[in-house]
Amino acid sequence: MTTATFDRRRFLRTTAFAVAGAMCGSRVGDALADDKITLRLSSPATPGDQRAVALTSVFAPAVRAFATFEPHWNAELFKQGTELEAIARGNLEMSITSAQELASLYPEWGIFTAGYLHRDAEHQKKVFAADFMDPMKKKVEDELGVKLLTVMYLGRRQLNLRIEKEIKTPDDLAGVKLRMPGTDAWQFLGKALGANPVPVAFTEIYTALQTGAIDGQDNPLPSDKDSKFYEVTKQICLTSHLVDLNYLAFSKKVWDGLAPDRQAAVQKAADDAAESGRQKQLKLESELEQFFKDKGLKVYTPDVDAFRKHVQKAYLDSDFAKDWPQGMVDKINAL
């Protein structure tokens, strides 16, 4: 038994009793419908993060009549990675979770960490709302006591290169030394794109680009700007190979204790907050494309379909796909 397997089993075993108790406790919720509740959210995000801004400016006012939204940023309430367990135990009401976190407990969620699964922000919304997602969501609700309210758009990762060669298909990346994070999953994505992935710490990317130790790196456009990678690169190839996301997680115990009209209000508030953050992030990405052009970089879109087919085949032929729900990639592609 691997360590990961042991940890997952222990987590599910120790939280099962808490979830069962929470479900029993939820039956008295309607009797307390007139009481104002506190919704504490714990997240490692900073107060200025677009997700944080959307929740405090959109979600909080929308539920103010019956709930007090109490966010705790910078992981000040619960350590990053422990929020789902806190919700399951009844110690927390809300968090912002990732597909990676869910996949550590339920391997089937690993499908949403793969390259070229989502096409764009709107496609993310369609996938999350699709009927084929219901069994996966229900499992998280039943076993963890965590309801996933909505999907939050984080942005698209693009290729940022110091070489002048125009990249149209994965074949054009052959031999290109592409910095990717050091984990096996990230390195696999680099290879699937057609490049020669090189693990380099984020803090060392600028120097590695400057000296030619690497030919390029992949990050969302805001990171490219903030880290001034445009000073030592010549182009940005808009591959959008990973459309990153988070989920807004909510206590199932608290949800079941809400009257139907309040459940509807919470759901709408969550969706509206996610949409607000989504539109602001999309606007920022669009503005940054022009920013980089103004800095003298070539910014263009390659043959994304060629990249998608190449990367999806690499994943489907790999061990990463063994835990994915059968046929789900085709269902996602068809949306």
SSE sequence, one letter per element: HEHEHEHHHEEHEHEHEHHEHH
Strand content: 15-25%
Poorly predicted residue ranges: 1-6, 22-33
The strand count comes to: 9
Determine the fraction of residues in helical runs and give it as a percent range. 40-55%
Major sheet description: 9 strands, mixed
Number of helices: 13
**Given the C-alpha coordinates, what overall shape results?**
globular
* Mean pLDDT metric: 91
- Structural class based on helices, strands and sheet pairing: alpha/beta
What distance lies between the first and last C-alpha atoms, to the nearest angstrom? 38 Å
Radius of gyration: 21 Å
What's a concise summary of this model?
The protein is an alpha/beta fold and 335 residues long.
Outline the structure in words:
This protein is α/β, with parallel strands linked by helices and 335 residues long. 45% of the residues lie in helices and 19% in strands. The protein has 13 helices and nine strands. Strands 1, 2, 3, 4, 5, 6, 7, 8 and 9 form a nine-stranded mixed β-sheet that branches. Strand 1, helix 2 and strand 2 form a beta-alpha-beta unit. The longest helix is centred in the C-terminal third of the chain and has 35 residues. The protein is globular and about 65 Å long. The two termini are 38 Å apart. The N terminus is likely disordered.
